[in-house]
Amino acid sequence: MIKNRLIKNKWQWPIAIVLTLMLTACAGGATSSPSAASASSAPAGPAVLHVGWPGSPDKLNPGTGELSEAYTIYDLVYDTLFHLNFDGTFKLDIADSYKASDDGLVYTFKIHQGVKFHDGQPLTAKDVAFSLQLYKDHTDFPFLNFYTTTFEKIEAPDDSTVVLTLNKAIPNLESQLLGLYILPEHIWSKYKEGKAAAEFQNLEMIGSGPFKMKEYKQNEFVHLVANKEYFANPPKIDEIVFQTFGNEDALVQALQTGQVDMITKMPNTAVPVLKRAQNIKLVTGAPLGPSLRDIVINQIDPKNCPKEGGKCTGHPALRDRNVRLALAHATDKQNIIDVAMLGLAKPGLTLVATGQVFWYNNTLKDYAFDIAQANKILDDAGYKDTDGDGVREMPGDPKKPLIFRLQWPNNIPEAPRIGELLGKTWAQIGIKTEPQSVDPDTLVSVCCPAYDFDIMIWGWSWGPDPNDPLGVTRTDQIPTGSSETGYANPEFDKLYDQQQVERNPEKRKQIVFKMQELLFNDVTYIIPYYQDTVQAYRADRFQGWIIDAPTLALEDPKNLTIIEAVK
Amino acid sequence: MPQNNFWQSFFRNRMGVIGFVMLAIAVAVAIFAPLIAPYDPNTTVRVTIDNIYSPPSAQNWLGTDDAGKDVLTNLIYGARVSLIVGFFASFISLVIGGTIGLVAGFYGGRVENVLMRLTDILLVIPDLPLLIVLIALLGRGMPILIFVIGILGWTGTARVVRSQTLSVRERKFVQRARAIGAGNLYIIRRHIFPLVFPLMLVNAVLVISAAILNESTLAFLGLGDPTRLSWGQMLNFAFSRGAMSAGAWWSLVPPGLAIIWVVLGLTLLGNGLERVFNPRLEMHHLAIGDEMVARPPQVVGPVAVAAVGKTVGE
After folding, report:
1. Start-to-end Cα distance in chain A
2. For the CA atoms of B291, B297, B300, B306, what is the dihedral angle to 10 degrees?
3. Per-residue pLDDT tens over the stretch A288-314
4. What is the Cα–Cα distance from A455 to A317, expressed in whole angstroms?
């Protein structure tokens, strides 16, 4: 999971491979095109797909990458044991079959034979076991080793078999394996000790996936060529060039002029223009990795304040559920969606997003936007405006008005609009906000575990498993800084541990639903919306894109391997 | 310099008058914004994907922005923030720069050395990175913005005031005052400040335009006060929320022109005032030369020579 802009080493939870990372919104960069990037689509020459995106991979070493763009490239160049389908299910990638023991502790994978790395060396079970072991051993890999915490032993008895033994039975091994890329042992064995693995730049990037790395210039471009010997479905196109653009507006321009054939991200404000444009197909849908905007309410109890670095300066009123409930009732989510996202988002309930299809609790009914109701809640709870200045005060303390700091990171372009709308509706229930836009690093430093804020507008992106979103609200995540709200509920913590080992999907779902209900009833967060992915491509250049699946990601290997040039 | 003389020579300077009128219009718009603006900037507008960035029409003379709001209204209210920041920041600059310039110029010696080297250091540090760093450290909000722009904008004022002080302090009447026992503070207050002040005023007008430009720059970079819509903020919204791909020139051009309008007005006014207060600018240096020959030398020293032209009105 990625708190969407910046990843800190200390996140205790496995990140999911995220396709919609906000961080790129501020990542300005040089715009340039590689030598091979010629805009015209010559019918005779190789079919080169030009992709425009607002970011650039930060590292080619899969152990150390932090940005979503890096993971997009890893997915294309490397194989894994499992892939995520567009409908949220998993499919085997490099393995032909797998078997789990009855106690759920031992998994045996049969690795596909005859697979070759891009340098011609064969890929065997030894490489798979080596890679998993590497991720497990390297705690200096910021994220990937978190997926391996339950791995007890990894063995390759022969060239086609991998036996993975876990220390406890877990229900979500597939999602744990999604980001564990298979590396060639004959290259990486030189770097497996100590710091060498994390320091290895991996510029040649030898993998076994559908595309090979040809050239990479950070913040400029990534040039990939098709691996025509790919064991599963070799790509139909010949090359891909990912070009970095300094801002999203420029992406739209580039698509319109034909400089690029597809863009992975664009401002929602450009939707009406591209809808009208000739030869351009605009597509929207749920993101492959759920992505949401959240209103974080600092509700930490002073007695839970972290000893290290805890400031806990939150407004005491926010610890009262009544106040949070009133805020929720006074939040006009639909208007926020209309103004900030131009309608391209869905109102949210909890951190578990609609994109986590199976795990999303659709039985909860959202708090209605109702100013009168919100006012009544505050009146009944004793928050009165005693001095008549339009701002309510704490019960029995006329010197403590309900004035909340409202902060957001300056790399979310729509955040100022959201802040503006919240300030307006909350003012109608006698709550004043002091809005402030800060840089993301500052927000991290006031957020957690400092708890030196009242309310923040931020966001998350997750993988498909509910472990990620539910993990952040646990009590023991308060000192680690993963918990932003300071929420503490022993019942929730107990349910979390239960669902983590419940292997029956239906039973696990019941627990996960119950947990969402707790979070929702306690108004832990206010979730204004779950974002849609908005992408576009030139219909006159390439065809065959998968755009009607439950989730959407044009840059996913499943798309890039099946599209073909328009004749 | 007598009052009517000032107005006469000011009105003779046509560009200065144009600048004054341009500024006066902007100030009037800012003051009477609620009367002029066609809409209330705080109304909630219901938008859909098809009615953002709507082009200029009878309802919205300058079209609408990324949130469906009237650009003309934003433009009118934006004048307030730009002008307030400009005036207050330049006031801070004026106080700091004036004090440092006066003290350095009057006392000279080591004091001058220290103060002027400090000024030089600030002068050579590029403004924008320093502004960004300070804003990042101190936080956002209009008071902080004013403070940061103000404390970084005084260097020019300090240098101008110092050089003027240097020339004034060598004049006969100052020396006479000293001879009859006047204290330093008294001399500064009664004799130096009144002569330096007009120049400070001229400089302040130019500092205002620099401050407005700085505010717009910072707001465009997303470092402004998010709660107050300024012209820079309008540009920031237009830029970050896809006005260019939407082809919405009406959300980019008006705030840009408004900034140019005010800055140009202030610059013309500043130059006009400068000519009035510093008539040497209007004369050829050879013309001054003749005059100098005709007069008996008043003071000795290279500094004083430069000041001779100023003694006309004395």
Report:
1. 41
2. -20
3. 888 899 999 999 999 999 998 899 999
4. 12
Distance of CA A406 to the CA centre of its chain: 24
Question: For B278, phi and psi rounded to 5 degrees?
Answer: -130, 75
pLDDT, averaged across chain B: 83
pLDDT of B138 reads: 83
Task: Look up residue A200 and give its two tokens.
Answer: 């290895």
| CATH superfamily, domain at A291-531 | Dipeptide-binding Protein; Domain 3 (3.10.105.10)
The reported pLDDT for the residue numbered B67 is: 84
Q: What percent of chain A has pLDDT over 90?
A: 63
What pLDDT is stored for residue B4 in this prediction? 66
Q: Do B227 and A256 lie within an 8 Å CB cutoff?
A: no
* CATH number for the domain formed by residue range(s) A82-199: 3.90.76.10
Cross-chain Cβ contact A420/B227 below 8 Å: yes
- Angstroms from B145 CA to nearest CA on chain A: 13
Q: How far is B120 from chain A (nearest CA, A)?
A: 31
Chain B: residues touching A (Cβ < 8 Å): 42, 44-50, 52-53, 66-68, 136, 139-141, 222-223, 226-227, 237, 239-247
Given this model, what pLDDT does residue A32 score? 43
Alpha-carbon span A559 to B108, nearest angstrom: 75
Q: Please report residues of A whose CB lies closer than 8 A to that of B139.
A: 436, 438
* DSSP E strands, A231-379: 239-244, 262-263, 280-287, 291-297, 345-346
Query: Hey, where are the domains in chain A?
Result: 20-77+209-279+539-565, 82-199, 291-531
> Quick one: chain A helix, strand, coil %, rounded to 5?
30, 20, 50
> Which is more confident, B295 or A490?
A490
pLDDT tier at B285 (50, 70, 90 boundaries)?
A: very low
CB contact under 8 A, B242 and A335: no
Helix (H, G, I), strand (E, B) or coil at B139: coil
Least confident of A109-113, A405-409, B63-67, B147-151: B63-67
Domain architecture of chain B: domains with CATH: 3-283 (1.10.3720.10), 287-314 (no CATH)
Confidence of residue B170 (pLDDT cuts 50, 70, 90): confident
d(CA B61, CA B55): 9
The tokens for A198 are: 């994390």
pLDDT band of residue B241 (cuts 50, 70, 90) is confident
Region at A32 (left for phi over 0; alpha for psi -120 to 50; beta for the rest)? beta
Q: Which residues contact B286 (CB under 8 A, 6 or more apart)?
A: none
pLDDT in tens, A50-95: 999 988 898 999 988 878 889 999 999 999 999 999 988 899 999 9
The complex's ipTM works out to 0.71
CB-based contact, A338 to chain B, within 8 Å: yes
The reply to whether residue B242 touches residue A416, judged by beta carbons under 8 angstroms, is no
With contact defined as beta carbons under 8 Å apart, do A527 and A259 qualify?
Answer: no
pLDDT confidence bin for A44, thresholds 50/70/90:
low
Looking at beta carbons, which residues of chain A come within 8 Å of B44?
Answer: 335, 421, 424
Chain center to CA of B277: 17
Alpha helices in B108-183 (DSSP H): 109-124, 127-138, 142-152, 155-169, 172-179
CATH class of A20-77+209-279+539-565: alpha beta
CB contacts < 8 A, A to B, total: 88
Per DSSP, A141 falls in state S
pTM of the shown model: 0.77
| A423 at interface of B, judged by CB pairs closer than 8 A | yes
Which candidate, B50, B67, B71, places its Cα nearest to that of B59? Answer: B71
